[in-house]
Design brief:
Elements: E1 3-6, E2 12-15, H1 20-52, H2 57-68, E3 71-75, E4 81-86, E5 114-116, E6 125-133, E7 136-145, H3 152-191, H4 198-207, E8 216-223, H5 234-253, E9 260-263, E10 267-273, H6 280-295, E11 305-309, H7 319-337, E12 342-344, H8 351-354, H9 360-371, H10 381-394, H11 399-406, H12 410-424, H13 431-445
Parallel strand pairs: 11-12
Antiparallel strand pairs: 1-2, 3-4, 3-7, 5-6, 6-7, 8-10, 8-11, 9-10
Helix pairs in contact: 1-2, 1-3, 5-6, 9-13
Protein name: Purine catabolism regulator
Domain PucR C-terminal helix-turn-helix: 385-443
InterPro entries: CdaR-like_regulators, CdaR_GGDEF, PucR_C-HTH_dom, PucR_C-HTH_sf
Length: 449
């Protein structure tokens, strides 16, 4: 091919034809770009068809895993896996990778959006993109490839997939919001004793897929941050609470879909089934497992919370009482442990009575009057002496057992007892004084007063 150009003076000049190699390279590049665009369009068509046919996040993850010949996950913004598909050689499901924590949460705080190169022989190439609808971030879509390293083109294709995933997430959240509101209102009526006859309430719960007519305990999980006094924007508070409710709902339903679970203003309530002969430890184990899954390793913007567990009930009519017990366990547990704990109503002991005192100033005054200078930590030795006194009272003044627990020599403990009696009075011979000191030590432990 010959091109003709003007030299600016009106004279036509003949330019040399491009080399055949350059033409072939250009043709190959155009063909490559055309193939990429066709592949992206095909991916988009397949995923849109999945959504139009009623498919959800599971089907989308399966399609994405097929496109990359590996695995795919869809997670919430804080990394909780909503859907997963595909397996990886020598690894299995993607949640077994180091980029997920022990509870199966994607470490979104450590996994940046975009490409991530393999960090070892068994570590696959991966890419993450945000799932966004308008100004709202809905989650994360990730792809894992055991083959060649992923490219910027693969990320662009993944972003096209995330656009379709946003449709599925939006639909899922809309349906869940309506269902969740209705379920929460019904459960609130049950816990307030306003749901009518117990048999009718159990039947209505069954129509919602819940089985509440069996031995169970009421679990209340309440966020430690007081939303009524927060400086956060209202939309942010609402978003955080929705995330908290979804985390509990997903953790519960992954184990048993018949368990009643719903979110209220600042808490989540679970009616957890337990064996009728279960002791307190047997009850706390499954609750603790659920709490660990919801907490994850604390990353991804998760909120801290305190959980309380009621006594076992065998009748729907007893659920209001059990709910009050769980709320008490949350309140007292937060006062004793300072938040982020798990308390059972039967293990509150004397703290149940102490929590009923309406004015915490009275409790502080009682501690000061009973423990004197030991009530403060102005002297470094005071905390150690309080611990010695606590163990002495717990062992009913058994000096040998106290010395063994504290790893003290017998004579050292005798010296400390004499010093404590000079500071507090003859508690070794006065049972009323011992009771006062035991109560004062427990009040001193209550961080919430």
């Amino acid at each position: 091919m010959v091109r003709v150009a003007n030299d600016g003076r009106g004279d036509a000049q003949t330019l040399p034809a491009p080399a055949d190699t350059d033409l072939r390279a250009l043709t190959a590049l155009v063909e490559h770009q055309r193939a990429l665009l066709e592949r992206e369009d095909e991916v988009h068509r397949v995923l849109v068809r999945v959504v139009l046919d009623g498919g959800g996040l599971g089907e989308i993850a399966h399609a994405v895993a097929g496109f990359f010949g590996g695995a795919a996950v869809v997670t919430t913004t804080d990394g909780r896996v909503l859907a997963s598909a595909g397996t990886l050689p020598e690894v299995g499901p993607p949640v077994a990778l180091a980029c997920f924590d022990r509870t199966g949460r994607l470490l979104v705080e450590d996994e940046p959006v975009g490409l991530r190169a393999p960090e070892g022989p068994a570590d696959p190439a991966r890419a993450f993109v945000r799932i966004v609808a308008g100004a709202s971030e809905l989650g994360v879509l990730g792809a894992f490839s055991p083959g060649p390293a992923l490219t910027a083109t693969d990320v662009h294709m993944l972003e096209r997939a995330a656009t379709v995933a946003a449709l599925a997430v939006t639909k899922q959240q809309a349906v869940a919001a309506v269902e969740g509101k209705y379920r929460a209102e019904f459960l609130r009526d049950v816990l307030a004793g306003r749901a009518g006859d117990p048999a009718d309430a159990a039947a209505h719960a069954a129509s919602l897929g819940w089985d509440i007519d069996r031995p169970l305990v009421v679990v209340v999980a309440e966020t430690d941050e007081n939303d009524a006094e927060t400086t956060r924007a209202a939309d942010e508070v609402h978003s955080l609470q929705d995330r908290f409710v979804r985390a509990w709902t997903q953790a519960v339903r992954s184990r048993d879909t018949s368990v009643a679970v719903a979110g209220f203003s600042q808490e989540v309530v679970v009616l957890l089934p337990v064996p009728e002969d279960a002791d307190t430890d047997a009850v706390l184990r499954p609750v603790g497992d659920l709490a660990r899954v919801v907490r994850g390793d604390g990353g991804g913007g998760r909120r801290t919370f305190t959980a309380g567990v009621s006594r076992l009930v065998t009748s729907v009519a007893d659920l209001p009482r059990a709910y009050d017990e769980a709320l008490t366990a949350v309140q007292v547990g937060r006062q004793v442990d300072g938040g982020s704990g798990l308390s059972h109503f039967d293990r509150l002991g004397i703290y149940r009575l102490l929590a009923l005192v309406p004015d915490s100033a009275d409790l502080r005054r009682f501690v000061t009057e009973s423990l004197g200078e030991l009530a403060t930590d102005d002297v470094p030795e005071n905390a150690d002496l309080r611990n010695t006194l606590s163990v002495l009272l717990d062992t009913n003044l058994n000096v040998a057992e106290t010395a063994r627990r504290l790893f003290f020599h017998y004579n050292t403990l005798r010296y400390r007892i004499a010093k404590l009696e000079r500071m507090l009075g003859p508690f070794t011979t006065d049972p009323q004084l011992r009771l006062t000191l035991a109560l004062a030590l427990r009040v001193h432990r209550m961080k919430g007063i």
